[in-house]
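Fold sample X.
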Amino acid sequence: MPHYFIDLHDGAHHIQDKEGFEAANPDVARERVVGIMSAVAQGFQADADHQHCVAAVRDESGTVLFRARLSLNFDAAE
């Protein structure tokens, strides 16, 4: 079964997945990314004007298969 890794980067910190997980196909990895990004969003701070996180999904060879981006921006009303 293929092995996938999900690395996270928020602009200041980079977390490299060293363990990974087995999944039947990239669609399963995509579902896992949605769950991770949901948890990341819950940790966003209300007092920050801009926050973001990028998740990169790699295969066993280290090739990035896709990236998911999550952003929260507060803009003043004009």
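Fold sample Y, listed below.
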Amino acid sequence: MSEIETTRHAAGEAAALDVLGTAADWAASGRKLALATVVETWGSAPRPTGSHLVIDEEGNFEGSVSGGCVEGAVIAEAIDVIEAGEPKLLEFGVADETAWRVGLSCGGRIRVYVERLG
């Protein structure tokens, strides 16, 4: 692993620990929670696989699964997951690989798994 890759990996692990620490604190205070996790990316997704977003029943959140691109939609789905108790696999992005051939640099796809905690 290169020095840059090692630094990115360490930063990603630190961010995950921060999010999971927040989740533990929120759970201890009695909040109902969901955890969203990036499980697959394709193209220019800004967050790597394994990135987390924790959401409470009021829509408060910590972390990131897309750098702001789809967080609002993930938060709305997470609130539904908290209420219903059923996990969801969400997919966002360009549905066609030809997007790259025509130069859509912001294209890509991301899959996010959302599950209730506790």
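Sample Y note: The first helix runs from residue 3 to 28.
Also: Strands lie at 33-43, 52-56, 61-63, 88-93, 108-117.
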